[in-house]
Structure formats: C-alpha cells, structure tokens
Amino acid sequence: MNVKPINELFKKDLVVINMGLESFADNLKDQKVKVLQMNWKPPAGGNKKIASLLAKLGR
Amino acid sequence: MQKILVEKDSYYDSVFLMLINKEVKQFKGVKDAVVSMGTEVNVELLKGMGLFNSEIESSTPNDLIIAVEAEKEDVAESAIKAAKELLNKKKSQAQEGDEYRPVTLDKAVEMVPDANLVVVSVPGNYAAREVKKALNKNLHVMLFSDNVSLEEEIELKELAEEKGLLMMGPDCGTAIINGKPLCFANVISKGNIGIVAASGTGLQEVSCSIDKFGGGISQGIGTGGRDLKNSRVGGRMMRMGIAALKNDPETKVITVISKPPAEDVAEKVIADLKKTGKPCVIHFIGLTPGEESGNIQYARNLEEAAGVAVALSKGETYKPRMFTIPEDEIEKLVSQETKNMNSKQKYLRGLYTGGTLADEAMIIFEKEIGNIYSNNQTNPDLVLDDPHVSKGNTIVDLGDDVFTVGRPHPMIDPSTREERIVKETEDPEMAVMLLDVVLGYGSHEDPAGAILKSLADAKKKAEERGGYLSIIASVTGTNGDFQGMDAQKKKLESIGCIVMPSNYQASMLALKIIREVA
User: Fold this and answer.
1) Residue B14: its chain A contacts at CB < 8 A?
2) How do residues B369-407 score in pLDDT, each as one tens digit?
3) Which residue of B has its CA nearest to A45?
4) Low-confidence ranges of chain B (pLDDT < 70)
5) What are the angstrom distances between the C-alpha of B292 and each of B51, B280, B281, B470?
6) Angle between helices B150-163 and B236-247 (to 10 degrees)
7) Other residues' Cβ atoms within 10 Å of the Cβ of residue B39
8) CATH code, B100-171
9) B130 touches chain A (CB under 8 A)
10) Which domain holds residue A16?
11) How many A×B Cβ pairs under 8 Å?
12) Nearest neighbour of A2 by CB, restricted to B99, B164, B183
C-alpha cells in the first residue's frame, strides 16, 4: 500500500485551501496555519445539467 | 404580510445564512423568516411554508432568498433591511481581507503552490467533483460535506488509494493533522498516540481523554462514518491511515475507533494492526470487545480506549475501572442526587449534541436496563414516534437531520438543545438529565453558558413540584480549547450540575441514579 505522500505530509507545515464554510479558515488562521479561503460558488450557476457537462469535461 | 427579496448571483455559505436567519426570526413582529440560497430543497421548503412567489420559483442555488412573514409591512421591510445589512457587513469584511479569493481550485493552487490539504465543505451534491480535482492535483482532502453518495465515496477513495493521499470523509467532522485541529476538533497535547477514527465526536472524546490522562497525540485521522461500516468502501481510509501511522516514527501507539464495522472489514483492519508491530487499541462502539492478543488490546468505551492508549504509550499497564472518583464518593453523590426526588420521578432524559456520545450512552443504558427510546435507535419499536417528544427513558441525538433542517448543528447553535431542555422541564417524570458539552474549534463560544439559565430553571421547576432534578454532564474538551474546559465545568457546577470526567462516567453515574429511583 502506497502511503508515502501521507508520511511526507506529516513532516511538513500544513498549507490549506478552504473551500466552503469560512469559519474553518478563520480557525486555522487562529492557529497560524497558512490558509487560502476560496470564494466557491455552485458551478454553472447551479444549473445541474451544465454542471455535469462541465464535470465530464474535467472543468 | 409577506415580503420576499431574491438577489441574483449572490452566494453565501449555509452555516452563515442560518445564523443570519436566526437573527431575523428574532426581530420583533416577525412571524417567520427564511434566509437561504435558492436550492431545490429550500425552494420546496418555502413553498410548503406558503412563503413563495414566482421569483423564488425561478431562483437558482446561486441566488440569495430573504423571505419574511410579519404582522406589518414596515416590520417585514425593516427585517429584510437588517438581514441585508448583516450580509453586506460580511461581504465588506471579506473584501477588506488580506487576499483575493479564487473561485476555482486551479486558481487557488496557482496562488498557493505549496498547498497540501484541501478542506471541502460545499453542498454535498457538488463536493465529489471538487474533491476529485483536488486529488488529481495530488492534494490531501478533508471532506466535511455530507450527502455524498456511496458510489462517489468509493470512487474518490479508490483514487486516493492509487495516489497515496488522505481522503478523510465524507461527513468527516474532526481531524488533527500535524497538531492542528481541523473543523470540529480540540487543542490536544502533542504526543506519540496516533488515532484513526470513523467517528467525529468519538475522535474528540478519545483525544480529549488522552490529554486529560497526561498523554498526547501524533495524528488524528478521520475516515468518515461509512468507511468500515460498508464492505464496498472496505475500510480503505482506515487501512491507509494505519499504514501511515505504522511508518510514522512519531507514533508509538495506534488507536482505532469506529461504529460497528462490517465483519470482513473488521478482519482486514485487525490483520493490518497486527502487522504494524506497534501496540494497538481497538474500540468498536457497541461491540463486545475481542480477546487481547499479541500487540492488540480492546477497549470497552471511548474513555477506556484513551486510558489504555496512554498506559501503553508510557509503558504501563492499564487498570480497568468504572469511575476515576473513589467508589464511596460516587455513592455519596447518588444519595445526594436522589434524596429529594419525589415518587413520580423515574426517567432519564439524555439530550446530546454529539452523535457518538449519544450512542455510547444509549448502549450503556440498553445493556443495563433496556428499552431506551431514541431517534438513533436501531430497534424500530424504540424509535421515538415524534423525535421532539420524549417518553420513558429517552436519549436523543439533537445533531440528527430531523432536528437540524434549516438550522445549524446544536454544537454551533445551542438554541435547539435549549428549547428541548425547556420542553423537558414540564415533565414531572424526569429524574435525570444527561448532557454532553463539546468544546473546541467549530463549536459555540460558550456552550455551557448558553444553556445555563434553562438548566437552572429546570431544577427550580422540579423543586416547585416537590422534587429534585439531577443534571449530570461531561465536557469534551481541554484547557487548550478557547472555551476552556475548567471554565465551562465551573459554569455548570455553579447551578448544581454534576460534571463527570467523561461521557462514559457521566452515563454510569446517571445509570446508578436511575436504578435507585426507578
């Protein structure tokens, strides 16, 4: 079982991208963790059909 | 009088909107209010409430809806204005913030090329595609969102396995990686115990108990609740977590926590643990513990899992016990708590915010006295007809979906539990109220303080009826948490609550009292 990247993570400082609830990013900042809050929005304006097409295209 | 405002292309996260919603509802003269995004579910909900118009009908998940029902038009208008002000304040705070906020993961990675973990808490139906993107960029993932399908979970975990990455979740509320609490987690001393857990509050209770016993943790990996339960998921993340802890030089003891696993998955996990060569502790919540064998020990409850792990980490032998307080003091507490109860008082009311803690209490009571009513019951005869109304001995998990539609989890917003406490107060048959108070990041800033008045009132009402209400609680937290364990404990004790060192001990004390009066 390959878990090398997990053991590498254990040796590094966490650098987090937070996608969603902003309070999670605030809590990480409070602990001096480098974190980037995304301004996530439902893809394709929430239109499911277009969103699934985009997903298929890998976008 | 109804007023509805739909703001196109204006996205806010659901927890934030629920908190705004609560404030608008409390506005004087407002009968009902909904502040939410125009998702299918929310649109249906509004339709059902009769708070509806054509604009809502055509809204999308990207559109903000503020709908207010009030006694007068001007009240409705001011309520909408107040909601908008709160939202605008948030927006300007975000704009004032230090950095640009990217919309796509591609852009985010461009901005922080050294990123190594993505925390995903977007609505469940969008989550899988975002996680897939993250894994394909070789980023570890903590997936907090629920409502991710089993098929998606399997696909994502297969991809994570192929790449050797963490994919903690879905519905993973707690993790501690490199000493940093993520989402709902506590500040725990650093140490040499590694935990892999398929239960969020289970991980919180065990890690906090480890801290209380003078131990510390190296890593706390979450897997999501289905990881071991479902044979097709096959314990993939648990097994990868164990393999990583095996290789980790900082980890001397491995602790594994899960709700009852599928049999074939349990076998694989136990085999993996044997192969680590490190001392291991297993607690499968609700299952009879196995026999100690080689490097594997079993614990009977969450606190014991912590106790055994700490003993092993210090090269000591764990001495099994029920209470950490001397037996004669426990007997004193039981007589102190029962002596003023009246003959009508017979029943337990467990009002929980943590799902696994509720399960742990339920399992203890089921085993000892049987017939516990709950919304979490697996026995259909004992599922509460109305989860909002207790009967006999009842233990409810107030974080369950039936209680949280359109409102935040009770760990974030204690008002759901406060309302329930007020309701229970009217029941003369209640003898013991059993509570959990969960601290840490993610949780409310003062969970004990928020329910204190309702608890004091409940005690007073029982006295007015010529009885006495016993309130037993435990605090899942540490003094490193921003709420402070000792401070929270003191608050509860100030109104006569008995605060026990763990959920297990609180449940056992409550059980002794119920046995005495039933």
Assistant:
1) 21
2) 999 999 999 899 999 999 999 999 999 999 998 888 777
3) B62
4) 93-98
5) 60, 10, 10, 38
6) 30
7) 20
8) 3.40.50.720
9) yes
10) 4-56
11) 167
12) B164
The whole-angstrom separation of Cα B46 and Cα B40 is: 10
Residue boundaries of the structural domains of chain B: 2-96, 100-171, 190-319, 327-517
Cβ–Cβ below 8 Å for A19 and B122: yes
State how far the Cα of B84 lies from the Cα of B66, in Å rounded to an integer.
Answer: 9
Q: Any idea how long chain A is?
A: 59
Q: What is the CATH number of domain B190-319?
A: 3.40.50.261
pLDDT tens-digit readout, A5-53: 999 999 999 999 999 999 999 999 999 999 999 999 888 666 666 666 6
Instruction: Mark yes or no for CB contact B244/A7 under 8 Å.
Output: yes
Cα B20 to Cα B34: distance, rounded to the nearest angstrom: 9
- Fold equal for B2-96 and B327-517: no
DSSP 8-state assignment for residue B28: T
Domain count of chain A? 1
Q: Which of A12, A28, A38 sits opposite B108 (nearest CB)?
A: A38
Q: CB-CB: which of B16, B166, B244 is closest to A22?
A: B16
Mutate to test the interface with B, among A38, A57, A59 (most CBs of B within 10 A): A38
Q: Which residue of A has its CA nearest to B480?
A: A31
